[in-house]
Amino acid sequence: MTQPIVRTVLGDVDPSALGHTQPHEHLLIDLSRPKTTRRPVADRALDNAPITLENHYRVRRHHTSEDLRLFDVDVAVDELARYTASGGGTIVDATSIGLGRDPRGLAEISRRSGVHVVMGAGFYFRDYHPADVAARTREELTAEIVADVRTGVDGTGIKSGLIGEIGLSHPLHPDEDKVLRAACAAQRETGAALMIHPGRDPLSPLAALRIVAEEGVDPSRVIMSHVERTVFSAAEMRAIAETGCYAEFDLFGQESSYYALAPIDMPNDATRVDYIVDLIAHGHAEQILISQDICHKTNMTRYGGEGFAHILDHVLPLMRRKGIDDAMIAAITVHNPARALAFPG
Ligand SMILES: [Zn+2]
Question: 29, 42, 129, 243 — which has fewest CB within 10 A?
Fold first, then answer.
């Protein structure tokens, strides 16, 4: 039998080598490209302005174009120094195609920071699809995803270790349905985990999981991201976990009820931990993942944000205060992500 491995941008490693892992982050990303679905930033001068103390609040609240671009390898290496100083070991860069995925940049960041970095594969939601996705067949898309995992991205030899984040809207666009089914086929072929970014509707996660089941994917190989901006009750969280997938609370650090991308009441870190306590009480401890989904400049300490060490420095003490013991914290932050990311090499 093949030994399970975790596939990083610097090669395959033993799953026990990962340590504290944040399974949904972005070290390099360009979210600024599609203008179609973004609400225009009313203040045109602000949209591309450098971030200052004076404009920081407005930039973070409205996500200006400048805020949505993480291109700087040096900044990422600095940010990860804070992550390792607080005990971090591994970052999953869930940047899929259409979001500016950069295998060489990620490999350099990993080499210089000493952090294991796992790179994504597949496509983000429709507004970010490259122009040719509409014309390509499901089989062609599957072959590309499989090649990214097996042989590497764009001739770099740098391989993806995760299929995702696969972006969905609600209702699902036909091209997103095709991409999701292609990703399912690639999951079955490679064994790599499938990470889904659901549409911003409470119906989207279970609808996506029905497609995943139709395509024959083992639900224990699926990570449902962003659960806390998508469903808003413990019962709905449990319904997602009851399918057998991972439920990922990945917006830790977003402490405001305001969410720029949808008219919802965003929970804060305390509420996220309360949902996690409920899932543990209902027997779902082995399916919980936590992360910060850092994807804006204003999330970085360089720009006055919380940085990648926020969970380690501030959320783990909160979890302890709410009765989650150290063994359970290790399950959620070390063992669950290691199991999710492992596949036969
Ligand atoms: Zn996402």
Answer: 42
Distance 290 CA to ligand 1 centre (A): 13
Domain boundaries, the chain: 14-344
Q: How confident is the model at residue 39 (pLDDT cuts 50, 70, 90)?
A: low
What is the CA(1)–ligand 1 centre distance, in A? 34
In this prediction, residues 235-251 reach a mean pLDDT of: 98
* Fold (topology level) of 14-344: TIM Barrel (3.20.20)
Sheet with 194-197: strands ordered across: 163-167, 194-197, 222-224, 246-249, 288-290
Residues in the chain: 345
Residue type, 237: M
Token code pair at residue 338: 């290691």
CA distances in angstroms from 126 to 107, 112, 134, listed in the order given = 27, 34, 9
Distance, CA 167 to ligand 1 centroid (Å)?
7
Measured in Å, residue 165 CA sits from the centre of ligand 1 at 6
Give the CA diameter of the chain: 59
- Give tens-digit pLDDT for 92-134: 999 999 999 999 999 999 999 999 999 999 999 999 999 999 9
Report how far residue 154's alpha carbon sits from residue 103's, in angstroms, rounded to the nearest whole number.
9
From the CA of 226, how far away is ligand 1's center (Å)? Answer: 7
Return the HEC string of 258-308.
CCCCCCCCCCCHHHHHHHHHHHHHCCCHHHEEECCCCCCHHHCHHHCCCCC
Q: Check whether 85 has a pLDDT greater than 70.
A: yes
Task: Dump pLDDT digits (tens) for 207-227.
Answer: 999 999 999 999 999 999 999
- The residue among 113, 108, 59, 92 whose CA lies nearest residue 296 is 59
CA distances from 299 to 247, 249, 293 (A): 23, 17, 9
- CB-based burial, 284-300: b 16+ in 10 Å, e otherwise: bbebbbbbbbbbbbbbb
The Cβ-side half-sphere exposure at 215, using a 13 Å CA radius, reads: 26
